[in-house]
Amino acid sequence: MPVNLAGLWVPIATPFAATGNVDLPLLVEHGKRLIAEGATGLAVLGTTSEANSLTVDERRAVIDACIAGGIPPERLMPGTGSAAIGDAIALTRHAAAAGCAGVLLLPPFYYKNITDDGLFAFVARLIEGCGKFTPRILLYHIPQQAVVGWSLPLIARLREAFPAVIVGMKDSSGDLSRVEQASVFGNFAIFPGSEAKVVAAMAMGAVGCVSAGGNVNARAIAELVAVASKPEAAVLQVAVNAVRAALGDRTLIASVKAVIAAQTGHPGWRRVRPPLLELTETERVALLAEPAIRALLPMPAIAV
Amino acid sequence: MPVNLAGLWVPIATPFAATGNVDLPLLVEHGKRLIAEGATGLAVLGTTSEANSLTVDERRAVIDACIAGGIPPERLMPGTGSAAIGDAIALTRHAAAAGCAGVLLLPPFYYKNITDDGLFAFVARLIEGCGKFTPRILLYHIPQQAVVGWSLPLIARLREAFPAVIVGMKDSSGDLSRVEQASVFGNFAIFPGSEAKVVAAMAMGAVGCVSAGGNVNARAIAELVAVASKPEAAVLQVAVNAVRAALGDRTLIASVKAVIAAQTGHPGWRRVRPPLLELTETERVALLAEPAIRALLPMPAIAV
C-alpha cells in the first residue's frame, strides 16, 4: 500500500571506479549509510544517479547489487523509465520480480510533443509487458530534463485504468499546485522531487520527498519529513534549504558527489559520466567552504 | 572520404510486425527499393526510424539484417547516439566494425543545459571506446527532439581534435545559417535534415540531404539533389515540397508509414511504437487524398 512508502527516499548518486564502471560496493555502502541515517529507502537509478547515462545491464546490476548487499527490496524504488519501451519493460519487470517497493517511471523522453494518448499507450504496453510481475508505478514528472511530462488528466486516466499499478508520483516540477491537485486522487503517494518545499507539500497531502540533497543531508531531511506537521518544522526547513541552495542547480549532481567524497574521504566519488563533468577544483573548494556544507563534513570546522 | 557520401540518405522508417517486434525482412525490402529508386544510402536508425524507441539489441539487429540482406555497408549510415555512453559506444563500434559509411551521432539527450565541454568529453570517450574500429561520425543536430545540440564552436573543436573521425553533420534545425557557417570547415559533409530547403542548402555547400520524405518520394528527391545547381531545380523543389507539406510535421512518422503502407499494399507498415500513435482512420484517409500524396500511390488517380 502506498502509505508504506512515506518518508525520505534518496535518489542515490552512482559512484564510478577509475575504469569508468559503476562502483557497486561503494554504491551499496552509501545506500546502507543513508538508511541508517533515517532514509525510508533508496530511489536508486534516478536523475541524480545518472541512470540514463547507464546501460540497461548496468541498471539491472545496481538493483541486484543493492539486494545482494543486504538492502531489502522494499527499501528500493528504482528508476526504470527509458525512451525505448523494451528497456522500460525489462527494467520494470526486473524491479517488480525482485520485490522492489515501487518504480519511478519517466515518460519516454526522446520525442517531444507527444500526446497523452501516446503516453497512455506506452504505460499500457509496459504493464502488459511485465506479465505476472505487476509493478507499483510512481509516475516521475521532471519537465526540466525530460521535457515530456505526465499531465494531471493523464495521471487520473492511468489511475482509473490501472488502480493497483499506478500508486503515486514524484513531481520535480517545483509546482506545488500539481501536488495539491493530485492529492484529491486519494491513496496516492505524492513525493515532491526536492526537499526545498517539503513542509508545504506535505500540508497539501505529499507523504515525503525524493531528494538529491538526501545524499549528503539525509538525517536532517528525514527528521524534517517526520515532523513536517509540527511547529518546529519551519526552522528545520530553513536549515535544510541552506544546504540545498549551496548545492546549486546547474551542477547539482557533481556538487552532491563532491560533498559525498569529502564526507567519506573517498575522492573517487567525485567522478561523473559524460556528458556531465566533475566540478573544477575552484568550484569544489568554494562549495566545501560554504558554511551549510562545511557543517556536514566530518572535519572540525575551520575557525573564521 | 566525405565526398563519397553525397546524395540522398533516407532515414528509413522501421516496420513492426503484429507482435510489436521489428519486421526485419520488410525493412530490408524497403531499403533496397529506396536504393533502386536513387537514394545514395540509408540513414537507418534515425529519428524517423523510431530508433530511440528500440533497444540496443534491436538496433544492432537492424544493421546486421541490412547487411545480411545484401545492402552494402557503405550504403548505411546508422544512428548510433544514446543518452548512455555505453550504448553509444556499443552501437558506434558495431557500425564501424561492419564497415558502415558513417554514423549519425545524436548528443546524449537526457540531461539539458549540458556544456560543450561535457559533450566534447562524451565524444572523446566514445571514440576511445571504439578502439581499433575508428568510426566516421556525422554529428546529428535536431534540437526539436534532442533539445541538446551541437554548437558550431563545438563542432569546430571536435574536427580539430578528431579530423579523421568527425566527417560531417546532419542539421535538422532548419537554420540555413548553420549550413553556411559549417561550410567553411572544408571537406565536411553537410546534410540538412529535410528536403524542403535542399537546393538553397546545397548552394551553401551541403552535399545532399537526409530526409524523412525520402521514404515515400525517393526518386524525386534524389533527382532534385542531382540537379540542385541547375535551373530546373527550382520547379522540382516546389514539387518535392508539396509532398513534404502534405506529410505534415506533428505526425510526420505515422504519416510516412501510412503512405508506405498505401504504396506497398502492406497495412502492417502503419504500426508505430509507443509513445507514437498511428494516424486515425480519418487522418489517414485525408492524407492519402492529398493530391501530392495521391500522385505517389500505385492506384490510378481518382477523377475529380
Care to describe what's here?
2 copies of one chain form a homodimer. Chain A has a single domain (2-226), classed as Aldolase class I (TIM Barrel). The first copy, chain A, contains 13 helices and 7 strands. Chain A has helices spanning 24-36, 56-68, 85-97, 116-129, 143-146, 152-161, 176-182, 198-203, 214-226, 233-247, 252-264, 281-289, 291-294; strands spanning 7-10, 41-42, 103-105, 137-141, 166-171, 189-192, 208-210. Helices cover 44% and strands 9% of the residues of chain A. Chain A is globular, with a radius of gyration of 18 Å. With 304 residues, chain A is α/β, with parallel strands linked by helices. Chain A has a 4-stranded parallel sheet with strand order 3-4-5-6.
Outline of the structure:
The structure is a homodimer of 304-residue chains. Chain A is built from 13 helices and seven strands.
